Amino acid sequence: MDRAELELQLEVWKDLAISKQMLIGAAAEALKIKSDCSMDEIKEAFEKATKRATEADANITKAQEDAASAIASMEIKVKESDIAHNKAMEASDKSHEERLVAEHRVNAGREANSDLLKKAKAEIADKDKALKQIKKILHDSPENVVKKLKNLKKEKMDESNLRKKAEEDARKQKKDKQKAEQDFKDLESSLEQSAKLVEQIRELKTFCETQYDQLKDLVEDKKTLEKTPVLDEDLLEAVESLSSKDDKKSDGGDKTTKDKDSKNKESKNKDSKKSATKKKAVKRKSKKK
């Protein structure tokens, strides 16, 4: 081997050594280790870096799966909320109609009772007149007295029947009122549950948005992530507003009904006391005669 060929081989080996050293330096810099490290140290650092990359890919995949699951769960709950809202609105409309019908019946019953009371008062006044006439004709024949007493007894029976009918109407009105109040309470319960569900949906949306913001920093291709669906805020606010308005109406309606019932009871008690006083006075006068 001549000298020129030997120098050429030395030059090639020199270039290879320099290239290898540069490659080792670049690898050490990329793996963040010392530049004068051995091949074993480079290999160990490369394996650790590969392991970290694999774990990072697994974490990103798991985070994407969790986010997809949370979004799917939220979509299901939003659909359930829509269904529950529609049912609540239907129940609200139905209960409102039933309540109007019940109020109409109650008002009609009160008017009927008022007419019956007026009629009963007029009959009592007529009976007072009849008693006065009886006093005047006590010297009449026994047959006429018996006949007039029978007529008086018949009038008392009619009065008793009217009173029983008025009491039956009052009991029926009370049952209708209780049913309307129970239906209204059921509606209030449904609206309260809808309001709670709206609150849970908003909390779930906030959680999903937080998860989405965290995943954006971990995923390289952000287009693979889907944003949280937009909620119908008008619909959710309508459910909450309906619940609060129904509570206010319930409080005001109950108070008005109680005041009216107490006034009707006081009026009936006064009328019954007056009637009893008149009957006692008539009996005393008839005994004296």
How would you describe this protein?
- This protein has helices at residues 3-31, 39-136, 142-218, 233-288.
- It has 289 residues and is mostly helical.
- The protein has one domain (82-288).
- α2 runs antiparallel to α3 (142-218) and α3 packs antiparallel against α4 (233-288).
- The longest helix is centred in the N-terminal third of the chain and has 98 residues, at 39-136.
- The chain is rod-shaped, with a radius of gyration of 47 Å.
Can you give me a brief rundown of this structure?
The chain has helices spanning 3-31, 39-136, 142-218, 233-288.
Helix content: over 70%
Radius of gyration: 47 Å
Overall domain count? 1
Largest sheet: none
Strand elements, count: 0
Q: What is the number of helical segments per DSSP (H or I, 4+ residues)?
A: 4
- Range of strand content: under 5%
Give a quick set of tags describing it.
single chain, 289 residues, mainly alpha, 90% helix, disordered C terminus
Helices and strands in order, then pairings?
Layout: H1 3-31, H2 39-136, H3 142-218, H4 233-288
Helix pairs in contact: 1-2, 2-3, 2-4, 3-4
